Amino acid sequence: MSHTAHIRSHRKPRRSASTIAMRAGVASGVLGTLAVATAAGSANAAEPVTQTLELPVLTGDLAAQVAQSAQATQQAAANYQLQAERDAAAAAAAKEAKKDLADAKAEATKKAEAARKAAAERATRNAERTTLSTTASSSSSDSSTSTSTATGSAAAVIAFVKAQIGDAYVSGGTGPNSWDCSGLMQTAFKQVGIDLPRVSQDQSVAGTQVSLDNLQPGDILYWGSAGSAYHVAVYVGDGMFVGAQNPSTGVAEKPLSYDPPTGAVRVL
After folding, report:
1. Which of 127, 137, 125, 167 is nearest to 240 (CA)?
2. So what's the architecture of 119-266 in CATH?
C-alpha cells in the first residue's frame, strides 16, 4: 500500500458524459440567443428611427370653398365701394341741380321784373299817345306855339339845335359835329347860361314837370320814366322836336307822332 493511499486525491471528480452534453446544449442556446440579439441590435442601429406627424390634408372641396369665400368677400368689398361712389355722385348731382334751379329762378325773376317794367313803360307811353296826337294837331293850327313866336332864351336854344341838324349821332358825343341826345341838350342850353346834367336820366328831372298838352318851345322832352329816362330832345313848336336820335338818323327834326315822348320838363 502506497504511503499516499490514505490521502484524498486533489483531482476533481470526473463529470459524466450526460452532464457535459447538457451543459454544452445550454451554452449553445445561450450563444444563439446572444447572436440573434446582437444581429437585431445591429440592424436597428443601421436604420435611424423616424417619427411621422400626420398633418391635416385639405381636400379639393374644402379648398374650393375657401377660394369661393375669398372671392365673395372681394366682390362684396367692390360692391360697397361702387355704391359709395354712386352715392357721392348722386349727392354732387343733387347739389348741382339745386344750384341750377336757384340760378334759373333768379334769372326768371329778373326777366319777369324787366318785362314788368317794359310793360309799364309801354302802357304809360300808350296812354300818352292820344293826348300827344291832340297836342300835335292843335299845335299845327296854333301859331302861338310856333318857332316864330319863340323869344329870348328859348329862341336861342332852338336856333342852336336846328343848326346841328344833319350832324352824326355818336354815343358820348358832345360836339361840335357829333352828338348823343343828352350831349346836344347840355350844349344847347349852355348857350343861354343853363348848366344841365350830362345824362338823360338826370336831365329828365332837371326842371319843372309839365304836361304834354301844355308844351312850350324850349321844353325838354324825355322818353322813359322821370329819373330813368333813356332819351331826350327839345320841343321846337308846331308839334315838332329836334334831337340826336340814333346812328341812322343823326340829329334830326321829327313830329311828336314819330315817337311820342313820355313827359317833359321846363327849365326856361
Report:
1. 137
2. Alpha-Beta Complex (3.90)
